[in-house]
Amino acid sequence: MVWQMTSVQQISEADWMNQARRTPGRLLLTVWRIPACYPDLPVMVREVVLDTAFRAGMMASFAERLIQFDCWPLISQRERDVLDGMRMIANEHCRMLRWEVDRVHRALMDTGLKIVLLKGAAFDRLGLPNSAGRLVADLDILADRADLKEIESCFNDHGWHSAIKDDYDQKYYRQWMHEIPPMRHQSRLTEVDVHHTILPVTSRLAPDPVRMMADAVFLPEESAEEGRGVWLLSPVDMTLHCVVHLFYDSDFGRGLRDLMDLDGLLRHFSRQDVQFWDALVERSQSMQLGRPLYYALTLVHQLVGTPVPEATLTAVSKNRPWFGLRRLMHWLIPRVLLPGPLEKRDRLASFAWLLLYIRSHWLRMPPGMLFAHLSRKTKRRMSPDVRNRRTI
Asked: pLDDT, tens digit, for every residue of 122-171?
């Protein structure tokens, strides 16, 4: 449980040091919620906070939060220099992302095709609080599956080409996944992921991408030619996509950042619309995403302190699993999402990561396909060529 402000003021230096040594992820969450306590922390504890934020991909975002809460003048020049460096990197990521969106517009401007911005690009376009300082690796867009061939052809003409060369991986993406193989630009080396749904087509859950595309919102660009702008998912669909990305992905390295993304979306959209919570629950049911939303709202409320209404928590609890599985998931997820101590390997966290990794694949594929896929991947990783490349 995250400390409250009243208890933070009473924590001794020894308690801070113990928290930093044993559970640095929870320490970061505490300071994230209450940035005003950061300048008064012991130097060694502040170093752990910054190290944990760096490992979670949240260092630039943490810097922006210190600035937002007027803590910037109260920290040392050395800390400001380090955090300013990460802010510069994040600003460059943002500039790259916006330019890539512009280039995608240019590539498709004569086609009349509808594409929807996802994740970081959507957060930036809306000016969401969690977009400041957010690092991005690529541009994610959603398109109608019937338009994929035309989009891929247009991208090829404008310098993007498939980043996947292996025949099996090409088949894996095109037949079973929720996106075509990532496309990398030949000169800028930036990648665009073109999605046609938000979960693999082989997944046990099947949210309807046609409805998501139909309910997308058009935001016109300011001071631009008529008709120019971007499409974004509706607030409830954007939130559900974040939920799916957090609880159905097998890449947990940025799990805490994704959790904070969810916290930012929930706070922002619920302030904008008093009907947001009811609409979110209703949409999750119609999209077969009631179980993921239960995990998401329960854990973001417990770990981050997101103000989820009690009525909403009660409503989503109807989708909770049986008691044993529920307890197991509430034990596993924090150990994977929250960074552990750097100086020693946490065997329980490694075990939790393995179980959630298996779960993510189990939910993505039928058992026969999963066994064949993992067997092929294991065989490839054990091949002499791959082992030799790892030692270079």
From this structure: 999 998 888 889 988 889 999 999 999 999 999 999 999 998 888 888 88
Distance separating alpha carbons of residues 330 and 325, to the nearest angstrom: 9
The Cα 389–Cα 22 span in angstroms is: 35
- Give me the CATH topology for the region 94-233: Beta Polymerase; domain 2 (3.30.460)
Closest CA to 31 of 300, 133, 61, 270: 61
For 331-358, letters b (16+ CB in 10 Å) and e give ebbbbbbbbbbeeeeeeebeebbebbee
Dist. CA 123–CA 129, nearest whole Å: 8
- Would you give the end-to-end CA distance of the chain in angstroms? 43
Token pair of 50 as six digits: 């910054």
Distance separating alpha carbons of residues 232 and 212, to the nearest angstrom? 10
120 touches 140 (CB < 8 A): yes
Judge whether 200 and 176 are in contact, CB under 8 Å.
yes
Higher-confidence residue: 227 or 105? 105
Residue among 339, 375, 304 nearest 2 (CA): 304
